[in-house]
Amino acid sequence: xxxxxxxxxxxxxxxxxxxxxxxxxxxxxxxxxxxxxxxxxxxxxxxxxxxxxxxxxxxxxxxxxxxxxxxxxxxxxxxxxxxxxxxxxxxxxxxxxxxxxxxxxxxxxxxxxxxxxxxxxxxxxxxxxxxxxxxxxxxxxxxxxxxxxxxxxxxxxxxxxxxxxxxxxxxxxxxxxxxxxxxxxxxxxxxxxxxxxxxxxxxxxxxxxxxxxxxxxxxxxxxxxxxxxxxxxxxxxxxxxxxxxxxxxxxxxxxxxxxxxxxxxxxxxxxxxxxxxxxxxxxxxxxxxxxxxxxxxxxxxxxxxxxxxxxxxxxxxxxxxxxxxxxxxxxxxxxxxxxxxxxxxxxxxxxxxxxxxxxxxxxxxxxxxxxxxxxxxxxxxxxxxxxxxxxxxxxxxxxxxxxxxxxxxxxxxxxxxxxxxxxxxxxxxxxxxxxxxxxxxxxxxxxxxxxxxxxxxxxxxxxxxxxxxxxxxxxxxxxxxxxxxxxxxxxxxxxxxxxxxxxxxxxx
Amino acid sequence: xxxxxxxxxxxxxxxxxxxxxxxxxxxxxxxxxxxxxxxxxxxxxxxxxxxxxxxxxxxxxxxxxxxxxxxxxxxxxxxxxxxxxxxxxxxxxxxxxxxxxxxxxxxxxxxxxxxxxxxxxxxxxxxxxxxxxxxxxxxxxxxxxxxxxxxxxxxxxxxxxxxxxxxxxxxxxxxxxxxxxxxxxxxxxxxxxxxxxxxxxxxxxxxxxxxxxxxxxxxxxxxxxxxxxxxxxxxxxxxxxxxxxxxxxxxxxxxxxxxxxxxxxxxxxxxxxxxxxxxxxxxxxxxxxxxxxxxxxxxxxxxxxxxxxxxxxxxxxxxxxxxxxxxxxxxxxxxxxxxxxxxxxxxxxxxxxxxxxxxxxxxxxxxxxxxxxxxxxxxxxxxxxxxxxxxxxxxxxxxxxxxxxxxxxxxxxxxxxxxxxxxxxxxxxxxxxxxxxxxxxxxxxxxxxxxxxxxxxxxxxxxxxxxxxxxxxxxxxxxxxxxxxxxxxxxxxxxxxxxxxxxxxxxx
Lengths: 508, 508
What we know:
The structure is a homodimer.
Chain A: H1 8-38, H2 45-64, H3 66-80, H4 86-104, H5 107-130, H6 133-154, H7 160-168, H8 174-197, H9 213-227, E1 234-238, E2 244-248, E3 251-256, H10 264-282, H11 298-312, H12 316-329, H13 339-345, H14 362-378, H15 387-399, H16 425-445, H17 449-453, H18 458-467, H19 477-485, H20 492-505
Parallel strand pairs in A: 1-3
Antiparallel strand pairs in A: 2-3
Helix pairs in contact in A: 1-2, 1-3, 3-4, 5-6, 6-7, 8-14, 8-20, 9-10, 9-12, 10-11, 11-16, 12-13, 14-15, 14-16, 16-18, 16-20
């Protein structure tokens, strides 16, 4: 390909052709990974790993070859000459961001990371099973060291940790998050304390009974269909953990798991994943297989899942709509279980050791803990050997409870064994964005409770589609949120939301 | 890659690396195709086609690049110098065969074929739905023309049609098959005639009752588990048509469909596909992702499915073993249904219009018909416009029945709409090989009936594994069958088998 002779249209066409090939390889890998978690017989593990590795290598080679660099250089010149549309400028800018990140990582470091992760994962699994942090420690140390090298290779403006944060939440910086999380903690911690001191306890019995698991799924599927999840372009399958995978246009997969004696894991899991799924189904078809057809960030993705899970499905109006559905699927439910009792049952606040089981409020304190420890580990201010004790002390400080084992503490999450440092903050960013978006949607559409109580989700869904989904990565997460809500990401809307909701439940 | 400086080991390593990449791409495509037939939401069709096209293009580029040609030339020199083992010689020879076939096809012809097929398939579906051959005719003509060009491009020794036959059954030639099929027809047709004239009719009621479909699957799965299909390295899922797909080592997928009022489609479908599946599971791990780790041919593949479906599961000893199982899954079955009645019920001989519903005997006359018409079409001796009438006349001549519509005649099979001329003979070759292999297995192991009647399939399975599965493409199909059975492929063993079995049932 002789890029110097190309005009701008030809360069875009050539770039999109390469991006489409990379995107198709990613789609194939996406389906193979989904299958690995749902249907693959266990004998296929080794063969599957080889195929995934080959696909990743081909995608990397196609993307980091000279062509993309040359095309980007030519298009950036056209951009400087004022020849590109806003969308084209964003496409070039985001592709440049991905390209630089890819080419800056030395192949030797990528290989070391892949190998370190592949050894760390089973070591973590065993360490957790035996509740023995020492077994995992050397792997954590190696991964930290390699990720520090990665940050240096990629580059950063302020703090090395920014290079890691940026890959999950474009433009996120440690210094900003420290302020944001400090502000959040300052507001949230006393509010949780007040709830615990209120003396009021929520009765969770209405959702903690025996519920046939297939009927849990049928009920949940009916709800997410009403939310607008398109089953002609998606499906739901069982897996050991819930996730959402956008395979390619017209194919978005959710997974679920369930507990026989508790409605919440299946129901809120499916609604949560369907929130992700609506985002994937709402991405631009026109820009598919380019950054403008990809989700803006993990934080923005999480804002969509949390908005539907918490702001909608843990709301009082939602249960006015869905209790009759629930009773149709479970006619054996006692007559005296009404929408108000379910609403309260799904809004219990109770500090607990395990993040993924935490309520809407204390969840964010789990994230504050992880973010602080990650920063200190990464900066070398905290030795891996001292991590379990630091974790336990911080749990006491933030949540007032102390893990009695590493398995129930520092070893509970998979993320660090995958080298995913800087990932955790996106969960809380998602919660904060969700509250801001919901407030902004109500400013635009009027109070949403009446529609939600009738099971009418279209106005909210379409507003999210217009404000968030269709833009893909056209705007950076911070700009996208500002554009949609009129304010920078912060904790104010979230705190307004939880004070109103939990203040009423706990009579504060 | 500087192949001239490589030694033989380095060349093999380099070749296997490329073959592994091509194999991994094929595995990914295999899973995507399986998923398309089983779980993919229909909205994913367009996106899926794009991914599959990208994977096929990458595999083609990787395989037909200069490297493989250079490596093969170097290895062939080493072979002439006597430096290679028998297996290495076979590996080089089979890779050469694939390579030449790939590079000889001009990209423009490949593209025309892809496009012609993609238009022919929906045209065939519509033509069949409306029973209107004229709608399909121009597509058939174009495909025939393109396949003639393909044959010229690939090359052949005797007849152009050999170039097409060879891709499904390596080494198969039109002239040999004409003799084989003529001999088969000469023996088979009067035998079928005698059965129909016997005045004896088989009572199919025992297998034509209401059978819960999930229990049909559970029963069938129990049988194929006993056959040795490894569910740790495979699975069974519903699809609109039954097939077997070997994804990669440790992952072999079967599909099934069922009829509520007939046990046969689900049960024999699953056993048939499990026969294919045992072959896939028995391929060499050492040689995976090379021709020596691939099935020898479609005919040999079909011999494995037919052997289990017909020689085993349509045999009397088999039902002595499996009737108690069947009754455990269907306790409501009448007490007077015994193994003998089921055995007879699944061995009804009755000429019918549709190949896939045909019995073990008349099935092969359907193939004789298709092969003869294909040869005449391909040679230009028969015009596409005259095909429906030629089909119908041949049906009368071979089976004594005449289709009353194109849908029930010339339009019934998907194969020609995919340009798969030369594919049909492999079905009957499979039947003939199966009978030869079963005879040879009994010569080696002694009579198999006692073991089968106890549900002991291991001796037979292991014999097939040693004689057929592990060799992959190390031997050409003809040589593989000769090696395993001591005789060239022919109709004698098959006719001995059917005369013995059906001669008894129909008292001839």
